[in-house]
């Protein structure tokens, strides 16, 4: 089956921070891939905007390098690269001053969709929104795309929402969480709400527990000072893990429409119970024989910031009362993997006797690497010698059924940018969702501060602190092994 490409309307996309790391690694290569896929109309224009002085040809060289480095095999097609670069131009602009704004205005064409991607530090979001308004670029056809982090607590998120709301209506604001752009995340909704098989079992009666893991092998890299002020809770849990939790736990929306989906997600966040301190494990990666530890990486020998977090939480509603959700994320772990695991309860009675062992259906939804899903089902072990049971994964990756095109997954950023141009907000966070997530997160962080909570050291290349394993063991459960 060949995946269908539906061209979007013509647009001007302005990337504030067009010379930055995110633009270079994700946004520009993603747009190039959409161009190659035939999704971009001939009149589409991409305007890089940052303070660095350069002309259009200088920026095209920058974009060409980004494509060659990050766009994969498609970048070898010189004609495609040339065709894409013809749509690219540059404006030197200062978000905090007047330089460049009139030039930008002259480049943005009337009667087209205008998207402004704020790929800059959050401290500049307000300045850019204000200047877009002052220069008449905040009209009804304008959309703004806002990168994470969206605030650092409830107060700052509210303030940011209020600042953006001065000049843009909620339907024009696209708060990006690239996890929502992943193919498997959308497949999760298709599997849940497009089949009769799963939904009747999707509740506390049949589900024993759910695990959500986002594990990284890397440390804080060059983001030391940012990360040390955030930690795993603010950097990963409040946004990415919370979004995954919402999609796995929400009620079926009446329609697959932006506000219907986001209303249901919001209800999940609002139904989260406060988390008991003994249901939280914080960790910090220790130094090893040949690698510095977290405190050396962030150059803060007294840092109490967590690079690992595991927690057990409950959702107070009819569907999930009594079913625990275990969330875990961390850096410098043994594998890079993101997955959601739904562990169903044991069959109520085993007709095969005690020797048959314990067998459970497990649905594993893998976001990276190798996006896909497997469902463990129990079958008879082949061969003579009586009835022995074995769990076998039923691969629901769909590549076999849908053909090789299905494997060429569209990257999250490119899918989300095309959604912005189409005006579809389903996969973007609404302002009240972000605020609700902070309202749940803030008291937990405040508790750590009040107790001067010290994260537990853990070995690099492992599975996190021992206490995280105990969090599960105490409940007679265990984490699924981290596998890349
Ligand atoms: P970055 O590499 O530091 O780039 C910042 C960009 O902003 C540069 O293009 C810079 O260019 C421009 N800039 C700085 N001050 C400016 C001003 N006064 N006026 C206009 N442009 C200005 O940052 P980044 O890593 O690309 O991150 C951008 C945003 O994405 C941040 O909010 C970050 O939190 C978020 N984000 C990044 C990643 C990632 O992987 N990089 C992932 C998730 C979220 P000039 O210096 O030339 O002006």
TrEMBL record:
Chain residues that bind NADP(+): 17-24, 51, 148
Keywords from the UniProt entry: Carbohydrate metabolism, Glucose metabolism, NADP, Oxidoreductase
Entry binding sites for substrate: 178, 182, 216, 235, 331
Domain Glucose-6-phosphate dehydrogenase C-terminal per the UniProt entry, residue ranges: 189-480
Domain Glucose-6-phosphate dehydrogenase NAD-binding: start-end pairs: 14-187
EC number(s) recorded for this UniProt protein: 1.1.1.49
Pfam families: G6PD_C (PF02781), G6PD_N (PF00479)
One Gene Ontology biological process: glucose metabolic process
A molecular function (GO) term: NADP binding
Keyword Transport (UniProt): no
GO CC aspect terms: cytosol
Catalytic activities: D-glucose 6-phosphate + NADP(+) = 6-phospho-D-glucono-1,5-lactone + NADPH + H(+)
Region of interest: Disordered: 451-470
UniProt function note: Catalyzes the oxidation of glucose 6-phosphate to 6-phosphogluconolactone.
HAMAP family: G6PD
Entry protein name: Glucose-6-phosphate 1-dehydrogenase
UniProt gene name: zwf
């Amino acid at each position: 089956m060949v995946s269908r490409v539906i061209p979007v309307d013509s647009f001007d996309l302005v990337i504030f921070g067009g010379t930055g790391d995110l633009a270079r690694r994700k946004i520009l290569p993603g747009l190039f891939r959409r161009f190659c896929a035939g999704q971009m109309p001939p009149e589409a224009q991409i305007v890089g905007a940052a303070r660095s002085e350069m002309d259009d040809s200088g920026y095209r060289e920058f974009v060409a390098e980004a494509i060659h480095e990050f766009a994969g095999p498609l970048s070898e097609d010189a004609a495609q690269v040339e065709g894409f670069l013809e749509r690219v131009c540059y404006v030197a602009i200062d978000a905090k001053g007047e330089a460049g704004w009139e030039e930008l205005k002259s480049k943005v064409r009337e009667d087209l969709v205008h998207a402004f991607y704020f790929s800059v530090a959050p401290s500049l979001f307000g300045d850019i929104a204000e200047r877009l308004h002052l220069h008449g670029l905040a009209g009804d056809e304008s959309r703004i795309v806002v990168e994470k982090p969206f605030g650092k607590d409830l107060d700052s998120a509210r303030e940011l929402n209020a600042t953006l709301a001065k000049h843009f209506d909620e339907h024009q604001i696209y708060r990006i969480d690239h996890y929502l752009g992943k193919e498997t995340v959308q497949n999760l909704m298709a599997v849940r709400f497009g089949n009769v098989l799963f939904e009747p079992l999707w509740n506390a009666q049949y589900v024993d527990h759910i695990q959500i893991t986002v594990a990284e092998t890397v440390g804080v890299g060059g983001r030391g000072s940012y990360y040390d002020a955030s930690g795993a809770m603010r950097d990963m849990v409040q946004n990415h893990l919370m979004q995954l939790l919402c999609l796995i736990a929400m009620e079926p929306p009446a329609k697959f429409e932006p506000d219907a989906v986001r209303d249901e997600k919001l209800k999940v966040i609002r139904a989260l119970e406060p988390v008991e301190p003994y249901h939280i494990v914080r960790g910090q990666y220790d130094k090893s024989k040949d690698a510095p530890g977290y405190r050396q990486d962030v150059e803060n020998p007294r840092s109490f910031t967590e690079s690992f977090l595991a927690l057990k939480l409950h959702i107070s509603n009819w569907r999930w009362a009594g079913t625990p959700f275990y969330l875990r994320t961390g850096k410098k772990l043994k594998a890079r993997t993101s997955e959601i695991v739904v562990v169903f309860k044991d069959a109520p009675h085993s007709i095969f006797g005690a020797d048959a062992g314990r067998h459970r259906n497990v649905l594993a939804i893998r976001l990276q690497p190798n996006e896909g899903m497997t469902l463990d089902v129990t079958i008879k072990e082949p061969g003579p010698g009586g009835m022995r049971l074995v769990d076998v994964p039923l691969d629901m990756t769909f590549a076999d059924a849908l053909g090789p095109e299905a494997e060429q997954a569209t990257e999250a950023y490119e899918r989300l940018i095309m959604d912005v141009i189409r005006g579809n907000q389903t996969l973007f966070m609404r302002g009240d969702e972000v605020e609700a997530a902070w309202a749940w997160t803030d008291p937990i962080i405040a508790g750590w501060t009040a107790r001067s909570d010290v994260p537990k050291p853990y070995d690099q290349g492992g599975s996190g602190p021992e206490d995280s394993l105990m969090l599960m063991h105490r409940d007679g459960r265990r984490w699924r092994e981290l596998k890349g």
